[in-house]
Amino acid sequence: MSEHHTDGPRPLVLGPEDVPRIEAVPLAERGLPANTYQLLRRSVQAAPDAPALHLLGEDGGPWREAPVWTYADLLRHVHQAANTYTAHGLRPGGVVGIMLPNSGRMFAALLGAEAVGVANPVNPALGEEHIAHILELTKAELLVADVRLREKAERIRDMVPSLREVLLVGGDFDAAAATQPDDRLVSGHEPEPGDICGYFHTGGTTGTPKVAPHTHAMQVYMAWAIGFIGVYTGDAVALAGLPLFHVNALHVTGLGAFMHGRPVVSLGPLGYRDRALTADFWHIIEHFRVTSFSAVPTVYAALPPVPDGVDLSSLRAGAVGAAPLPGRVRDKFEADAKVPMLEGYGLTEATCATSATPPFAPRAGSVGLRLAYQHVKAVTVDADGRPVADCAPGETGVLAISGPSVFPGYLGPDGPDPAGSVFDGWLLTGDLGAVDEDGYVYLQGRAKDLIIRGGHNIDPIPVEESLLAHPAVTGAAVVGRPDPHSGEVPVAYVTVARPEPATGPASELATEPVTEADLLLWGKEHAPEPAAAPKAVHIIDAIPVTAVGKPAKSLLVADSVARIVTEALTACSLDGTVEVTSADGRFTAVVSGTPGSPELAAALDRYPFDHRIASAAARDEG
User: How far apart are CA 516 and CA 554, in angstroms?
Assistant: First the structure.
């Protein structure tokens, strides 16, 4: 029997024994939609007047009076967006770059592009050269951008040979779409399951972003499979606050809800960064009867206290991933909201989610149970990063994934290339972890994040967890700082809670702010082993993150290199500016504005990073 929402019961995972039960029915017999356009049409046919999107923060009005799109409305907007692309010369396989904030128009622009071509959403905050690189790699023909990004979009257009036209939401795109039929696709073409429907960049705060292709089959499977843990059953309502260029937002709080005919409450263009909306977060949960939402740990840490009298009885769970979760953040959320925080694991290269925690069968320390039809194992790898052997249950190795969610390889000049990432159908994730006999996944860090101190491997996650146990620490990232003796030593970057100044008679009792020296001592006393104790702790305003919300540790390593060079300049009584670049994991420090100094060169030669001293005289001559 088919089990999608329109004609049968949904398969649910209450425990590990349910995964093989679901897999007893071949995926090909599940009757899933052929593409994301058909996915949406099925929900429209089932309940055209059901709410699909509550669009908070879009029109400037009170959030309680936010506009609502029904499923029929959403499909009409998708038709008009898709037909606009067709009218502007897009053909099947053609690529539409999308540079928009979260909005109803963003949903329509993205799903419309997938209906008639390929959607390539990009983070508007990326630099112009990064965006141009992505669009050049994907051979984008059209770029849909917010009208407020007109100048940036036009400069990008001039940098990308394939880019023919910029369409502005809030401008000519709206006018063009309004003239298009809203009841059909004028192209008459519907994609096949194996057709590529989306290109998603995997990060890119520094260096060159990689691009992961998604097929319709991958996205449809993911939208259906996310429902295994029951997040879309009954009267489910999802809240969306992560950006839609992020696969978590698109699938968990987009296509997954649409697949099951459920409404989404969108927090609007700023998402969780909208202070006015997040100040009312718990009232929004109450008003819209939200049952679940997905966020990264920093969002949970910043949530306001639950006001007295707010009814949160609709809420079933909060989902979390992307970064280490401080235990006290979990404890506070679960105590305040009276629902579990469910960890999951996934990556863009595997569409979105690979494991999720069943609400009724959590397992301590795990990031959930593998989703049905996906398979996860830990493997050992050789020096070239190729898999050598499978690990035993519970044994740590590099996590590998196979199944309908795995991408065909990173996009190269000639199309998707599996080389270096997919081996005989298994995606090597680069993540260290273990899988127990029941299929629960335990994540232990990125293989590339391991700190190798004099040949001793240090996993940064336990060190980060020890720092997060400090009551003042709200975020932590531990990286390897280049060292002349050990190759690398651990250093920590942390964010801390800033106490409000005390006033009145008790002001003399105010708690003193925590210092870097305090945290260095804490790190030494609480490190999992002496070699893992941070050699330095730096308090910063925010842990930098990649475009998809994960800690951008390469930025922190670059900062540690810059600090080393700056200290060397000071020791040599020199002034100068320092810029650190990275390529393929190798860091180069460029010192400018200072005379050439053998003493400085000798000091930097001791470190395992490249350096170049551009003297002031050489710079002036250039």
Answer: 21
CA 610 to CA 463: how far, in whole Å?
28
Sign of CA dihedral 269, 275, 281, 284: negative
CB 462 within 8 A of CB 468: no
The closest alpha carbon to 199, from 261, 268, 118, 267, belongs to 118
H/E stretch holding 619 reads: helix 616-621
* Per-residue pLDDT tens over the stretch 428-455: 998 889 999 999 999 877 667 878 786 5
Coil, helix or strand at residue 372: coil
Neighbour count for residue 570 (Cβ, 10 Å): 10
The structure tokens 């649910």 sit at 12
What is d(CA 168, CA 414) in angstroms, rounded to the nearest whole number? Answer: 30
Tokens 């908070």, residue located: 56
Neighbour-count burial of 365, counting CB atoms closer than 10 A to its CB (0-12 exposed, 13-18 middle, 19+ buried):
exposed
The residues, any chain, with a CB within 8 Å of residue 96's CB and separated by 6 or more, are: 85, 90, 109, 113, 117, 118, 119, 120, 140, 141, 142, 143, 144
Structure-token match 């506070």, residue found: 332
CA torsion sign for 546, 551, 553, 556 is positive
Residue-wise pLDDT tens digits, 296-308:
877 887 899 999 9
Contact predicate 453/490, CB 8 Å:
yes
**Which pair of tokens denotes residue 363?**
């397992």
CA distance linking residue 10 with residue 239, whole number of Å:
21
E strand or H helix that includes residue 474: strand 473-483
CA distance 239 to 233: 15
Tokens of 617: 């005289």
Token code pair at residue 358: 């069943």
d(CA 59, CA 402): 43
Euclidean distance between CA atoms 166 and 156, whole angstroms:
9
Q: Kindly give, in sequence order, each residue whose CB lies less than 8 Å from that of residue 541, ignoring residues fewer than 6 positions away.
A: 495
Q: How far apart are CA 451 and CA 263, in angstroms?
A: 44
- Give the pTM: 0.79
